[in-house]
Amino acid sequence: MELQILEKTDDYLRFIIKGVNVSFVNALRRIMLTEVPSMAIDEVVIIENSSMIRDEILAHRMGFIPLKTDLDSYNLPEECTCKSEFGCNLCRLSLTLEVEATEDVITVYSKDLQSENPDVRPVSDRIPIVKLAPEQKIKLEAYARLGKGKNHAKWQPVSMCTHKYLPQIKINAESCNACGDCVKMCPQKILVNTGEGIKTQNEIECTLCQDCVDACPKNPPAIEISWHKDAFIFNIESTGALPVERIVLEALKILDKKIVDFSKQLKVRKK
Amino acid sequence: MKIKVLKKTSNELKIEVEGEGHTLCNVLQKVLLEDETIETAGYHIQHPLIGNPIIYVHTKGKQKPEATLREATKKMRGQCKEFRRSFEKALKEWQGK
């Protein structure tokens, strides 16, 4: 297995992985989307809301504010030792919001949310929640919990997680007459006409659309688009809840745990 | 996770896995089919929302299906480990740049 990182920032990761089958990368993708836990507001107690937005819409909006997650110090509610419906300090976090507009119309932003744990806070300060006209007021308490994407999309730690096959472009130099029809057709600008023949650049950007093959006047076409069966380009974009490399490592941990659970169950069955 | 045995003979095993989905079963199927002692292996999920996957393994000759499954889980763990190793290595290389 060979892995090469192409691009990495705090919340974006792009890498090529070679020598692995599609089931495995797909399992990882599915786990990142649905089973890696992250934190989101799950319950909102509204004490006062005189804004134009109704309580339930407001609560729904708050749920979708991504929160920086601290996976090591919080437990999933169903796995927490407190076994309480309301949760404890280890599985629940409270945030408060109290804003009143006095003279002008104001916008309430995510930065106005006061978290009891400074490590768990909205990933951005500039997420608008609601607008308040003069004399309108909002006062509420929100409870955030760890959860999984399979229960609600607000708990997804990734906003995008995809993989595609690594493209392979073959140009038959003998039959190609460098007419340039395929170069004009390519939406990703991968093909270059050198005058003597067609060359490729930035091959991994190819979307495998096969437009160049259709455009080729030769029969059979002088260009062939295919893909490596065991190499993938993986794109992951974090919502900011977790660092992107942590999401990958967590997903691996979860997959490994699934396999261990399965083999344990097999052993139990044997007796 | 809970496994329920639906059918068991010397060469065949049919199990229902509660609380799992394509995530685990597809990897398992792929690994099983690479095994040369396997006659056929597969799984299906009767309903996309409420169905539990049913895994079917049919082996050749004297090979026990349970042993093949155990072998497959070992291989899958190996894949996980290898991925982790290469991912951590790539991360280090990236940070070194």
What do these coordinates show?
The complex is a heterodimer of chains A (271) and B (97). A 4-stranded antiparallel β-sheet of chain A has the order 1-2-12-9. A 4-stranded antiparallel β-sheet of chain A has the order 3-8-4-6, with helices on one face. In chain A, strands 5-7 form a two-stranded antiparallel sheet. Chain A starts with a strand and ends with a helix. Chain A has helices at 22-34, 55-63, 181-185, 211-215, 244-270, and strands at 2-8, 12-18, 38-49, 93-100, 106-109, 114-115, 128-132, 137-147, 158-171, 191-193, 198-200, 223-238. Chain A has 2 domains: 2-34 and 160-235, RNA polymerase, RBP11-like subunit (Gyrase A, domain 2, 2-Layer Sandwich), CATH 3.30.1360; 39-155, RNA Polymerase Alpha Subunit, Chain A, domain 2 (Beta Complex). Chain A is α+β, with helices and mostly antiparallel strands and 271 residues long. Helices cover 22% and strands 34% of the residues of chain A. In chain A, strand 10 and strand 11 form a beta hairpin. By secondary structure, chain B is an alpha+beta fold. Chain B has a single domain (2-95), classed as Gyrase A, domain 2, CATH 3.30.1360.10. Chain B is built from 2 helices and 4 strands. In chain B, strands 1-2-4-3 form a 4-stranded antiparallel β-sheet, covered by helices on one side. In chain B, strand 1 and strand 2 (12-18) form a beta hairpin. Chain B is globular, with a radius of gyration of 16 Å. The A-B interface holds A 1-5, 8, 15, 17, 20-24, 26-28, 30-31, 35, 245, 248-249, 252, 255-256, 258-263, 265-266, 268-270 and B 1-3, 5, 15, 17, 20-24, 26-30, 66, 69-70, 73-74, 76-77, 79-87, 89-91, 93-94.
**CATH topology category name of chain B:** Gyrase A, domain 2
One letter per element, helices H and strands E, the order of chain A comes to EEHEHEEEEEEHEEHEH
Work out the helix count of chain B: 2
**CATH H-level superfamily of chain B:** RNA polymerase, RBP11-like subunit
Q: Give the class of chain B from helix and strand content and strand pairing.
A: alpha+beta
Q: How far apart are the termini of chain B?
A: 43 Å
Which stretches of chain B are low in confidence, meaning pLDDT under 50 for 5 or more residues running? none
Number of strands of chain B: 4
